[in-house]
């Protein structure tokens, strides 16, 4: 499903510039990003360490790298025209999450795929997606309009990054919340053959459509923190999720490393290698991939307001 069902009734925050550049995150998120490079190291040193760790992980798990990633449906919340930018938060509050993703050709010895466009989108801390800000996330949560941010209702927590010569992209975002009946997740598409144009990515084809997943213990600890704790209800674990099939990294399970072990509010760094077939096409439209009804396989959930 594309953007035909987007909610345009809540567009109170258009003052935010949507030029595709990095948007400064506010509050908890901004503090967390600064904290990620604290503890006596420079930004360059921290980046080098993270890259070395991720590269070592990829090298030691070659069999996983050689496996094509499991493709699933794009879900009901996809919108065309996401912006090319590293920071997708737009001031949305939450625990900082830095993603380092490596796109490789699983049909050619896991060689990097430079120029691949990685597109991600996910819900905010209370379970709301941009473009669908009145869709009920289930359980009990404040209305999305009560979050106090200046995020654009049609663009927050969505974006593209173009892979460098090593096939690597990086995103700065927040740890997603949850909505009924899904576990915590991030949606992803990998595009090739197109180009950046007017701040977004145009042309080419979608080679892979999938989702990233999070360890249950880490997710549930995050959800005890603010602002996540304001959304109460039944959280779906990985074992009970309608999409995650238990396949680990090949099914999108992220490797997560805390910025500071004793303080989860400082944020996490997530790593994953995406093994794709650059000749294949998989848009994820029209369902499939194990998703059923309820809010991921067809139309978005009801627009009824969340419980107070």
Gross morphology? globular
Q: What fraction of the residues are assigned to beta strands by DSSP?
A: 15-25%
Q: Overall pLDDT, averaged?
A: 80
Helix proportion of residues, in percent? Answer: 10-25%
- What are the secondary-structure elements, in order, as H or E? HHHEEEEEEEHEE
Distance between the termini: 30 Å
Q: Find the structural class using helix and strand composition.
A: alpha+beta
Radius of gyration, in Å, reads: 18 Å
Tally of DSSP β-strands: 9
Quaternary structure state of the chains depicted: single chain
Instruction: Give me the number of helical elements.
Output: 4
Attribute tags:
308 residues, alpha+beta, five-stranded mixed beta sheet, 9 strands, 22% strand, disordered C terminus
Structure description:
By secondary structure, this protein is α+β, with helices and mostly antiparallel strands. Helix content is 12%, strand content 22%. It has helices spanning 27-35, 43-60, 62-65, 216-222; strands spanning 96-105, 111-112, 117-121, 158-162, 168-174, 185-197, 200-213, 255-258, 268-276. Strands 1, 2, 5, 8 and 9 form a 5-stranded mixed beta sheet that branches. A 4-stranded antiparallel beta sheet has the order 4-3-6-7, with no helix packed on it. A hairpin with a 5-residue loop joins strand 1 (96-105) and strand 2 (111-112). The radius of gyration is 18 Å and the shape is globular.
